[in-house]
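Section 4.2 – Deliverable D4.2 (structural model, holo form)

The reporting period included a commitment to supply a predicted holo structure for the target in complex with zinc ion. Inputs used:
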Amino acid sequence: MDDNNNNDVILAAVAWWASKRPVEWDKEKHLSNPRINTTTPAESDLAAAVAKLLTPQVPVCGVCGTTKDVKWVGGSNPYKCPSPDCVSF
Ligand SMILES: [Zn+2]
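Output (structure tokens):
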């Protein structure tokens, strides 16, 4: 499966999830209660997964827990801030 196929799945899942949104709700309200109008456990889980995907993820330093200037550095603890106590070379 290539990236375009993955995008198709994501776009289809997001479109499906949006179709479940009550008409009087905005996206933010739907994100805070993503399982609304789902009828099966599988639908409920898919709705929650879509909401997680659409919620901006703020990277957290894996050492000190700050969110300031955190960068992806890879490895087993991939997010680190620039503090000398956190970045090891
Ligand atoms: Zn840190």
